[in-house]
Design brief:
This protein is 9% helix and 59% strand. With 188 residues, it is mainly beta.
């Protein structure tokens, strides 16, 4: 068995080449359902320090069939799932108040970039303790390293007591966006 921890320096070096300071402080472990790797205690920051954060656990599922059949011209990452548990993000621009988002949890499974629908669940705590959540079946069409289209069906977007539901689609390289969004009554 290959120990995934031996790749920590390589991953940190690759991130540095992309302008991200990455420190994997916890263990890297193989996971078997879905097949992939689980990385614990990840710290990251852009080199200009405008974005920094911490992820308690990052789990990446790999689509082994796509990995085995991909060629050098394929732009799709061979990921089948992404799970982020208990993350926080600090966004700081000079001369502006920093924005901290905490308790970030994300779960994406059966991911594809060919327009097929896959489930997405996101929850987080915004500034002032506002609770945010998003749940939808997403479809993304990715072509030549750009998003060419997307859909969010049966989505539920909640910001504290405000809830939006609906369906939305973006087509023609996102030049056309249409759909329906519903909300219950609210008081500003």
């Amino acid at each position: 068995m290959i120990d995934p921890n031996q790749y920590k320096p390589d991953l940190e070096s690759m991130a540095e080449g992309a302008g991200v300071e990455l420190a994997i402080e916890g263990a890297m472990e193989w996971q078997f359902f879905p097949l992939g790797v689980r990385i614990n205690q990840v710290n990251f920051a852009q080199q200009n320090q405008s974005v920094a954060g911490h992820i308690a656990q990052l789990a990446l599922g790999v689509n082994w069939l796509a990995l085995a059949t991909s060629n050098s011209e394929s732009y799709q990452l061979p990921l089948s799932s992404i799970a982020i548990t208990n993350a926080r993000l600090l966004y700081a621009i000079p001369d502006q108040l920093p924005l901290q988002i905490s308790n970030i949890n994300l779960n994406i499974s059966d991911m594809a970039l060919d327009g097929s629908a896959f489930p997405v669940q996101l929850s987080l705590q915004a500034p002032r303790g506002l609770q945010f959540s998003f749940d939808a079946d997403m479809g993304i069409t990715f072509f030549k390293q750009e998003i060419a289209g997307f859909s969010a069906s049966d989505f539920k977007l909640r910001l504290d007591k405000l809830q939006l539901t609906g369906d939305i689609q973006g087509t023609d390289n996102l030049t056309q966006i249409q759909g329906s969004i519903n909300t219950q009554g609210f008081n500003l």
